[in-house]
Amino acid sequence: MKILLIGEYSNVHWSLAEGLRSLGHSVCVMSNGDFWKNYKRDISLVRKNGKIGGITYLLRAYTLLPKLCGYDIVQIINPMFLELKAERIFPFYNWLKKHNKKLFMGAFGMDAFWVKYATTKPYNFRYSDFNIGEQEIVNDYTTSQIADWSNTAKARLNYKIADECNGIIAGMYEYYVSYQQHYRNKLTYIPFPVSCSFKKRPDYYTNERKIRFFIGIQRSRSIYKGTDIMLHALEKLQKSYPNDCEILKAENVPFEQYTQMVEDCDILLDQIYGYSPGMNALLALSKGKIVIGGAEEECYIILNEEDLRPMINVYPSEDDVYKKLEMLVLNKESIVKLQRESIEFVKKHHNPEKVAQQYIDFWNSK
User: What is the pTM (predicted TM-score) of this model?
Assistant: First the structure.
């Protein structure tokens, strides 16, 4: 098949493209590289700052339209699949729908359905970006996301695409349940694709050195991701066990540098408010690292996984994060076992060729 993937979140589309190509399909990825992360793509569409940058981007997008037709499958990463206001995306969506055989939408991140489901009271999630228990989380980020995706052009675009597209693919449990009530017949869950190919053999932890804890920080999204809570707990742990802990921090680094830092750690701290591991967590698991973050039982149930539990789930509180971190320091013998399970878990559920075949099967069924 001839396949076009538009947009990028944490290397999802490029990883999927690699799996699809290995199965013999022709794939083109068009994206901005997910901003500063600068992931690989076949067609680069990057918006520069300023009014001139916006005009240049819009003109470039229009000149690309003749190349964005004649595909068997088009998949967009999100309703906001271009760096434009929603009002300007409508004609691009209409073009893609008209000039290609099938169009699918990814439910991989923030959108109107996720915001609505997560903010509905009583809360559907025990915790999320918007709540902890029955306590609402209010900060600049959550307030802006609610405003952006409620009764706006972005929301209308999301609803239109969801109604008209051939199918919706969710990459995490929480996004799947957000669409389930309204689009059960055109919705599926497919795990994110992550390769387990190693540049070197996994560096399993030994008692001969300190445990290396790694945390990636996006300065503009620290509160939203919960890295502020996790970092405080980690720094407290280092003060309590200075001879056992080493902290590696990355702030807004390109993907290649980030990957190398993951290689050098034993344990990665990731999204605290999630029920499921995202791409960064899965990347770490694929390299034989332990992940501390979102790993509720629901994420294993949706995978039909009954045995492997490589991730350490945390409740979004500094005390719980600290206790889970301390548990590893005091039980170092468990680290290697969890590291080996990490690789087994990714190989079993996230192999790019296996995931790509799941996409092919779903696309063909619609």
Answer: 0.94
If you ran DSSP here, which 8-state letter would residue 185 be given?
A: G
Residue found by looking up tokens 């980020």 in the block: 141
244/46 Cα distance (integer angstroms)? 43
**Four-residue CA torsion sign, 61, 67, 70, 71:** negative
- Note whether 50 and 62 are within 8 A (CB): no
Terminal C-alpha separation, the chain: 15
- Taking the CB of residue 45, how many other CB atoms lie within 10 A of it? 17
Chain position carrying tokens 């109604």:
163
**What's the token pair of residue 259?**
């990957």
Residue type, 34: D
**In the chain, what are the domains?**
2-193+351-365 (3.40.50.2000), 211-349 (3.40.50.2000)
What are the tens digits of pLDDT across the range 280-331? 899 999 999 999 999 999 999 999 999 999 999 999 999 999 999 999 999 9
Within 13 Å, how many C-alpha atoms sit on residue 39's CB side? 22
| 140-153 exposure pattern, b = at least 16 Cβ within 10 A, e = fewer | ebbeebeebbeeee
- CA distances 142 to 258, 303, 307, Å, are 26, 29, 35
Structure token digits, residue 320:
């719980």
Say what the pLDDT of residue 255 is: 76
Specify which of 221-225, 266-270, 355-359 reaches the highest per-range mean pLDDT.
355-359
Quote the percentage of the chain above a pLDDT of 90: 85
**φ/ψ of residue 26, rounded to 5:** -95, 120
Distance CA 63, CA 30 (A): 14
Q: Who's near 256: CB < 8 A, 6+ residues apart? A: none
What's the Cα-to-Cα distance from 249 to each of 89, 146, 167, 169, 261, rounded to whole Å? 37, 30, 39, 33, 8
pLDDT band at 199 (very low <50, low <70, confident <90, very high): low
The amino acid at 283? L
Distance CA 219, CA 164 (A): 36
Phi, psi for 14 (deg, rounded to 5):
-70, -40
Q: Is the pLDDT of residue 41 over 70?
A: yes
